[in-house]
TrEMBL record:
This is Attacin. The lineage of its organism: Eukaryota, Metazoa, Ecdysozoa, Arthropoda, Hexapoda. GO terms for cellular component: extracellular region. Residues 69-134 form the Attacin N-terminal domain. InterPro entries: Attacin_C (IPR005521), Attacin_N (IPR005520). Keywords: Antibiotic, Antimicrobial, Cleavage on pair of basic residues, Immunity, Innate immunity, Secreted, Signal. Belongs to the attacin/sarcotoxin-2 family. Residues 1-18 form the signal peptide. Residues 136-256 form the Attacin C-terminal domain. It comes from Parnassius mnemosyne. GO terms for biological process: defense response to bacterium; innate immune response. Its main location: secreted. Pfam families: Attacin_C (PF03769), Attacin_N (PF03768). It is found in: Secreted.
Length: 256
């Protein structure tokens, strides 16, 4: 770890465990820290504080994962979801990645949906994506999504997300239709989180609501295990009665 940092408008320092890029614009000086896996952003005053003993493991930072990673999660029906993300282009503020997903995999070659696309992530926690997926015996979907990091400090994080999906049914008698919605999520100390979401499909006059929570059980440098649980409900004039349905599962993420 470097013991001191000298600032000259723009300075590049090389240390045994990473690279430090310091930038100053007179109004809001900041530091980018690259350790081969992450790009992390620090307020300059915090970065130089003697109380900051370990820059690369600070809790009050925003990060963009630079390496390829995959996630595996379970569903109540016993199937699994798989996601992979591979960076294509990265700089000190932004990352463009290729993403691929398989949902509802049964383990014997069957799945409920599979697709891929492109995702953009910003070091401040913002992002956007364009993805497509195929649903066997149903059709194809094209989705545009965006997220905005509303608040982030050493303990609290609030992110808002929105999406719009166009569905192209394989049945010629069913017209194309749109689904749109959003979600607001809160995380405390990078360990406990909760979210509220809603989506609506005009064709079916159907609105789905969800309230979810998650608890991080383990987090290492290259892996994470989380427990997820919540309730969901669908409301439509075509559904005579509806109730809140519980769900729970585990999700495992691995960075390579």
């Amino acid at each position: 770890m470097c013991k001191s940092i000298t600032i000259i408008l723009s300075v590049l320092m090389v240390c045994a465990n990473g690279r430090y890029l310091i930038k100053e614009d007179y109004r809001n000086p900041y530091v980018f820290v690259e350790d081969g896996r992450d790009v992390r952003v620090y307020d300059l005053e915090e970065a130089l504080s003697e109380d900051q003993q370990e820059l690369t493991h600070a809790n009050n930072i925003l990060r963009v994962r630079r390496q390829a990673h995959g996630a595996l999660s379970s569903n109540p029906d016993g199937t699994s979801n798989v996601m992979a993300k591979v960076p294509l282009s990265v700089n000190d503020k932004n990352m463009l990645s290729a993403v691929g997903t398989v949902s509802g995999a049964s383990g014997n070659g069957g799945f409920k949906a599979a697709g891929g696309g492109l995702a953009w992530d910003n070091v401040n926690g913002h992002g956007a994506s364009v993805t497509g997926q195929h649903i066997p015996d149903f059709g194809d979907q094209l989705t545009a999504a965006a997220k905005l990091n509303v608040l982030h400090n050493d303990k609290h994080d609030v992110t808002a997300q929105a999406f719009a999906t166009r569905t192209f049914p394989s049945n010629p008698n069913v017209p194309n239709f749109d689904t749109y919605g959003g979600k607001v999520g809160y995380t405390y100390d990078d360990k406990v989180g909760a979210s509220l979401g809603m989506q609506h499909t005009d064709l079916f006059k159907k609105t789905d609501y969800s309230a979810m929570g998650n608890l991080n059980l383990f987090k290492g440098r290259d892996s994470s295990l989380d427990f997820n649980a919540g309730m969901s409900k669908s409301v439509s004039p075509y559904i005579p009665s509806s109730r809140w349905e519980p769900s729970a599962g585990l999700s495992f993420t691995k960075w390579f």
